[in-house]
Design brief:
It comes from Alginatibacterium sediminis. Keywords: Aminotransferase, Pyridoxal phosphate, Transferase. This protein has two domains: 149 residues, Aspartate Aminotransferase, domain 1 (Alpha-Beta Complex); 271 residues, Type I PLP-dependent aspartate aminotransferase-like (Major domain) (Aspartate Aminotransferase, domain 2, 3-Layer(aba) Sandwich), CATH 3.40.640.10. It has 14 helices and 18 strands. It has a seven-stranded mixed sheet with strand order 4-10-9-8-7-5-6, sandwiched between helices. Strands 11, 12, 13, 15 and 18 form a five-stranded antiparallel sheet that branches. Strands 1-2-3-14 form a four-stranded mixed sheet. The protein is globular, with a radius of gyration of 22 Å. The protein starts with 23 loop residues before the first strand and ends with a helix. Bound molecules: pyridoxal-5'-phosphate (PLP).
Length: 452
């Protein structure tokens, strides 16, 4: 099974052009095997993508069958059974009020579509003055210009500043850093949510289109779970001021947190909801935007169609793959496994790292966990960004045969360090132990290599 690949300079503009990446050769459940036969346990599903692992028979067969029938038919001329069935599945399982789906090729496309749809919705209503989006610091919504504009990643935005849509940012719900010692969780959540109301009032509600938020923040900050009541208050504020709520579940959605949609656990729904990653589990490139019938009807009764479109939207093969992924999750009760293995992972992380001097916080839900690294766990002082501890952890983890997703998020505009774990929904207790053991060795090696 070892394949010899002649070494040559890559012609791909990689994320890290000078990094020597191993060649992924094949998948085996939660493992990726490289061309030298080395096995890596995929504890982050790449970036919270591969929720079924890497070699699922049903999904592979569904893709083959669809390609044998027809791989693609342009949506100006045809619809397809997998696209119609996938839209039905999403709408039937989605939180209340989301009655239509718009199928795209990934997370950024889903968010970009949501921003445009929200804008068009108000234009159809004759409310052209609305031009502001409000989002949160320490959030990520994608890399296309609109999605980047609403994201809170300051250092990336600064590079593209003059060409981005103006977005106002408020605080994320980040209890570990921002909850005051004399404040209850509930009071903290209300205080932070009320920042949105203050911002709407200062901009003038008639100028605001929507509030955009991840129910559970992923990549930028290592899994920020909201405190109870925060999102209920957010929903209330949006309704009171007549602005839309766009929830971005590209990373946290499709079962990752122990319910199909993360917002269900907050008991709120959205006007527009975006999903991607776990929708197709990486077997094909796919994302979706779900929308309310209020928006659908306003657009179709108005100019008649959504002024948007991509060549590969509702791609038949991608939809067939996503449908098979979702059927596999349902038929095997994998969301129950997310809940059960999530509890095992939580307790293994707490017992391994609960007293670690450089680990300040361990937080998450289901199989979506974040570990925040600090210089001092008592003062919560962030690690010096110049040390690039997150990069050292990634290297050490890959050497151990572990894929995790370390990041240098932003804490008050400065970089912080965290590790994100999002293993496949198919893992068992042995995999949990392997992940935590390898992670412990990787963190220790990385800290030593960084002189800590
Ligand atoms: N939104 C969130 C919450 C994400 O985590 C991501 C990707 O990490 C995106 C949007 C963008 O998705 P994609 O990389 O598929 O464009």
């Amino acid at each position: 099974m070892v394949v010899v690949v002649p070494s040559k300079k890559s012609r791909i503009l990689h994320r890290q052009p000078n990094a020597e990446l191993p060649m992924a050769f094949m998948g085996d459940g939660p493992y990726i095997i490289d061309d030298n036969g080395k096995r890596y346990i995929d504890a982050s599903g790449g970036a919270a993508v591969s929720c079924l692992g890497h070699s699922n028979t049903r999904v592979r067969q569904a893709i083959k069958d669809q390609v044998d029938n027809i791989a693609f038919a342009h949506t100006s001329f045809f619809t397809s059974k997998p696209a119609e069935d996938l839209a039905d599945f999403l709408v039937e399982h989605s939180p209340q009020g989301l009655d239509y789906a718009y199928l795209v090729s990934g997370g950024s496309e889903a968010v970009e579509s949501a921003l445009k749809l929200a804008r068009q919705y108000f234009i159809e209503l004759g409310q052209d003055s609305r031009k502001y989006f409000i989002a949160r610091r320490q959030s990520y919504h994608g890399n296309t210009l609109g999605a980047l504009a609403v994201g809170g990643n300051l250092w990336r935005k600064q590079q593209f500043a003059p060409i981005l849509v103006d977005t106002e940012h408020v605080s994320p719900c980040y209890a570990y850093r921002d909850q005051k010692s004399d404040e209850s969780e509930l009071d903290y959540g209300l205080r932070i949510a009320n920042e949105l109301e203050q911002r709407i009032e200062s901009l003038g509600a008639k100028n605001v289109i929507a509030f955009v938020a991840e129910p559970i923040v992923g990549a930028t900050s290592g899994v920020l779970t909201p405190v109870p009541g925060y999102f209920k208050r957010i929903r209330e504020i949006c309704d009171q001021h007549g602005i839309l709520l766009i929830l971005d579940e590209v990373m946290c959605g499709m079962g990752r947190t122990g319910s199909l949609f993360a917002c269900e656990q907050e008991q709120v729904s959205a006007d527009i909801l975006c999903v991607a990653k776990g929708l197709g589990a990486g077997y094909q490139a796919i994302g979706a935007m779900l929308l309310s019938d209020k928006i659908y009807n306003t657009i179709t009764d108005g100019s008649g169609f959504f002024q948007h479109g991509h060549t590969y939207q509702a791609h038949a093969t991608a939809c067939a793959a996503a449908l098979a992924v979702q059927q596999e999750i349902q038929d095997n009760n994998l969301i129950d496994n997310v809940q059960n293995m999530g509890l095992k992972l939580q307790s293994a992380l707490l017992s391994q790292f609960g007293n670690h001097p450089n680990i300040g916080d361990i937080r998450g839900r289901g199989l979506f966990w974040g570990i925040e690294l600090v210089a001092d766990r008592v003062t919560k002082k962030p690690l010096d960004p110049k040390l690039k501890v997150h990069s050292a952890i990634k290297t050490a983890a890959m050497n151990e045969g572990l894929i995790c997703y370390p990041g240098g998020g932003t804490i008050d505009g400065k970089q912080g360090n965290h590790i994100l774990l999002a293993p496949p929904f198919i893992i068992n207790e042995k995999h949990v132990t392997e992940i935590v053991d390898k992670l412990a060795r990787a963190i220790d090696t990385a800290l030593v290599n960084c002189g800590l």
